[in-house]
Amino acid sequence: MSPAEPLSQKDVQAIDAAKFYYEGDDSHSGLAVSSGELAQLRSFTAVAEDLGTQEPAVATLFAEKRIKWGCADLQTRNFSAPEGTILAIDVPYAPAWGKGGMLDVFGPDRLRSGLPVVVMIHGGSFMYGYKELNQKAAGMLANMGALVINISYPLAPQATYTEQVRAVWQALQWAQANAVRWGAAGKLTLMGDSAGANLAWVAALAAQNRELRLALQLPLGPSPEVGALALISGVYDLSELQGPREKSSSPCINLIADQFFDDAYWQAPKILRRPELATRQSALPLILLCTSSDDYTRSASLQLHSLLDEGDHVTKLFDFPATSHSLGHVFVTAKPNLEESRIVLATMFDLINR
To answer: Is the CA virtual torsion 177, 182, 188, 190 positive or negative?
Structure first.
């Protein structure tokens, strides 16, 4: 735990506003968070520091969810030192976004020419988390023999959806231009979980569609070459998030939908919003999909797999059944030491290392 330090007024307000639902307990209780615990959370997510200009209802809900998910991740995720070698850390690929515009680079202990390149994009419902959430899985892939570029991106409500796509695009351009420094070359594999899977999917579409790149106002320069996608527990049709919903997987985004989905999003080609059109019109790379029977976004993975299969795209689906232990949402990156997670990571590496 980081050393204690005085809580700022913004911290105090966020903590006072936040409520935590304890498992098995329907009552609400104020969440007591120490300055040291806040420092731990801030090592892998924004908490309240980007909420100062938001309406109270927005700031309260975002702080509540981030603290709730952060405390859960402290209990379940593996934040131990990653495997492989850290080649670069906190590289500012998009400096204007601060921590949301940084990346890390992991590689095997012995570098060689021709390493496959994986760009890892974390999840978090577009409003939670930094690259540190996935550092264990990134290190494991690196230890297998990949060059892994593990990125953060700017979070809602500070960033819109299209600003997030632009930031990811900048990271991909950085990866394409700089991977050669460590002996890697060739096309990129984009690996994303949850919201990160959506951003990886859209980036792959944009890499092959000039009209989409122009509509989203993606940064100029060479388009990244995408050779494969690994999509973990993703959501690809975002219509559920675009307005008030009684039950939603992302109530925070529902609350700010009008500002998060900006004009560029709605004016872009329909393939951005409708996966069934994308799978008919686009020449897509190899796609690996992963879900499980206790993954709450399982239906989205199965639906995309069905669409890809109908379009004769090359795809592989992992749909793990219920076992003696829970897998759940984004288990490959959240619990990379599980046998099932290792199977997915090893299969992915074998597919891109040919």
So the answer is: negative
- The CA-based dihedral angle spanning residues 31, 100, 52, 125, taken in that order and rounded to the nearest 10 degrees: -50
Query: pLDDT tens across 214-267, in order?
Result: 999 999 888 999 999 999 999 999 998 987 766 677 889 999 999 999 999 999
The single-letter DSSP state of residue 134 is: G
Question: 131-178 pLDDT, tens per residue?
Answer: 999 999 999 999 999 999 999 999 999 999 999 999 999 999 999 999
Name all contacts of 11-16 with Cβ < 8 Å and 24+ positions apart: 11/35, 11/38, 11/47, 11/48, 13/48, 14/47, 14/48, 14/51, 14/59, 14/60, 14/63, 14/67, 15/63, 15/67
Beta strands in 21-114 (DSSP E): 29-30, 85-92, 102-107
The dihedral built from the CA positions of residue 297, 301, 302 and 307, taken in this order, carries a sign that is positive
What is the pLDDT at residue 178?
A: 96
Q: Please name the residue that has the structure tokens 């809900």.
A: 61
- pLDDT per residue as tens digits for the range 314-333: 999 999 997 878 899 999 99
Residue 285 tokens read as: 């790379």
User: Rounded to two decimals, what is the model's pTM?
Assistant: 0.91
Written as six digits, the tokens of 77 are 């995720």
Gap between the Cα atoms of 37 and 118, Å rounded: 32
Compute CA 179 distance to the chain's CA centroid, rounded to the nearest angstrom. 21
CA distances from 302 to 227, 246, 314, 334, 349 (A): 22, 24, 15, 21, 22
Where does residue 221 rank: exposed (0-12), middle (13-18), buried (19+ CB within 10 A)? exposed
